Amino acid sequence: MLTKEKKTKIVTDHRVHPADSGSVEVQVALLSERITALTKHMVAFKKDHSSHTGLMKIVSQRKRLLIYLKREDPARYEKLIQKLGLRK
Question: Would you say 14 and 4 are in contact if contact means Cβ atoms under 8 Å apart?
Fold first, then answer.
């Protein structure tokens, strides 16, 4: 679970402009953090099927956002995956 402080830090690190709170970069960063936390949970609780379903939904949502960003602005996409350490 993301605490308010952690969420605020992620938003400030990935925002495009000072008033930004919902750009694709911010959304993908927040989803990536949730995926990391749920993955750790799944290692400890292998039979938690409802959490596994939620994890798959979050992964799919992040994938759709990344596809959108890659289509609309490939430079921002490359910068984001480098910053988050996704792929390769």
Answer: no
The pLDDT score that the predictor gives to residue 88 is 55
pLDDT digits (tens, 9 = 90+) for 41-52: 999 999 999 999
The torsion angle over the Cα atoms of residues 9, 14, 17 and 20, rounded to 10 degrees, is: -70
**Do 42 and 48 contact (CB within 8 A), yes or no?**
yes
| Tens digit of each residue's pLDDT (9 = 90 or more) over 61-70 | 999 999 999 9
Contacts 24+ apart (CB under 8 A), 7-14: 14/80, 14/83
* Domains of the chain listed by start with CATH number: 23-84 (1.10.287.10)
- The pair of structure tokens assigned to 19 is 């008033």
| pLDDT tier for residue 9 given thresholds of 50, 70 and 90 | very high
